[in-house]
Amino acid sequence: MKFRNEVLLISFGVCLLLFFLPLRFAVAWPLVLLMPFWFGPLVVWRTVSQPGIAQLALIPDVASLPGRIQKTVRAAAAELERLGFVERGLVRQSNLPRMDAFVQLFEHPQDGGICTQLIVTSRAELPLVLSEAIVFGQRLVGGGWIWTSNQRTSDVFSPNPRHDVIRLPAIRDAAALYRAHQRHVRQSPGEPSRASVEEPVRFQQELEAEAKAHWVRSGDFWFDDRRDRFRMTFVGAWRLTYRALPPFRQIREAKARRRGALISQ
User: Fold this and answer.
1) Which helix (H) or strand (E) holds 221?
2) From first to last of its 265 residues, what are the pLDDT tens digits of the chain?
């Protein structure tokens, strides 16, 4: 989670206030040092939200994108086509705060699996690529999913029990990641089924709707009808903040690495 500039200013103001209040030095310093643990959840609770419906649009011409994004998209297409995947389209989400997200969708005609390349950029005339990842997916009979990705950052949201997710950030090669994903699928007790991404925008909308419905079920978010946004619950804010802070983040990542090592070997 990234905090906005105004949140950082509020945090700085609270630090100053603690020192000007008639508190002993021995009390003020621990309060400042532990601010992420007691003030962080309050900031997340008041500021973190997600749009009710993502504004998604299919990009018909990759040449209309900035050069760095074009290069990334074309390189992924060439690499994944060598693995037997067929590109189905490039979707852009434009209603994120100060950034854009691009989802490049591929489908494997033989095993029915899918692959997405996720690209997040700053919103500027010359955008910076903030993150990029390859995610292989396999739908299961009954509606579940198996996901294998090389996303570098861990997810702080409550895990969906219908989604078996393994993250292998050290594997940057798509072919090696695909081999790991195939082992992941073979080790799953679920029965694979075919997923169709012939309509990329609709496919992304369905995945996002399922994810947001799970946020509400898990108690992390609630839907604000007046603002048409998903907003953090008080309990969810504490839960998500602590998952992103040490030592809880390191414990979760170590557990994920151990599980990923069993697949990548």
Assistant:
1) strand 221-224
2) 444 455 555 665 666 665 566 655 556 667 667 777 878 888 889 888 999 988 999 999 999 888 889 999 999 999 999 999 999 999 999 888 788 999 999 999 998 999 999 999 988 877 888 899 999 999 999 989 999 999 988 888 999 999 999 999 999 999 999 999 999 999 999 899 999 898 999 999 999 999 999 999 999 999 999 999 999 999 999 999 999 988 999 999 999 889 888 887 6
CB count within 10 Å of CB 121 equals 22
Domain count, the chain: 1
Give the residue numbers spanning the domain of 137: 51-214
Confirm whether 234 is domain-assigned. Answer: no
Backbone angles phi, psi at 181, to 5 degrees: -65, -40
Query: What backbone phi and psi angles, to 5 degrees, belong to 226?
Result: -65, -40
The model's pTM: 0.88
Residue 235 lies in a domain: no
For residue 63, give Cα distances in angstroms to 55, 71, 90, 102, 117: 21, 10, 12, 14, 17
Cα 2 from Cα 96, distance rounded (Å): 13
Does residue 22 sit within a domain?
no
Round to whole Å and give the CA distance between 48 and 218. Answer: 16
Residue 31 in any domain: the answer is: no
